[in-house]
Amino acid sequence: MSWLFLIFGVVAEAMSHVALKEANGFTKPLPSAFVLLGHGAAFVFLGQAMKGMPVGIVHALWAGLAIVTVTLLSTLIYRQHLGLTTWLGMAFIAFGVALINLSQGHSH
Fold this sequence. Notes:
- The chain has 108 residues and is mainly α.
- It has one domain (2-102).
- It has 4 helices and no strands.
- The protein has helices spanning 2-23, 29-49, 55-77, 84-102.
């Protein structure tokens, strides 16, 4: 169940980060509210994930998965084209997330 909460936290965080661009420095009420609610939801979900997983593991997975998800969403939504080096960095992050997941230092 912790993994499900972690994924919900990543999705909420990524969506609120993408909406942050539309909030235009918090001058637009609807996107600004979406950003604040998304961040709040992300922390609620992460708190639930931490009930069954170590804090460091949850944070590392959340950060890595959120970076990759925000990058993918910004590419799709805002048509932001990124260079090969950036995508290589994303691959390293994904590899790191996989290594953490496969480690014996935590339980699911």
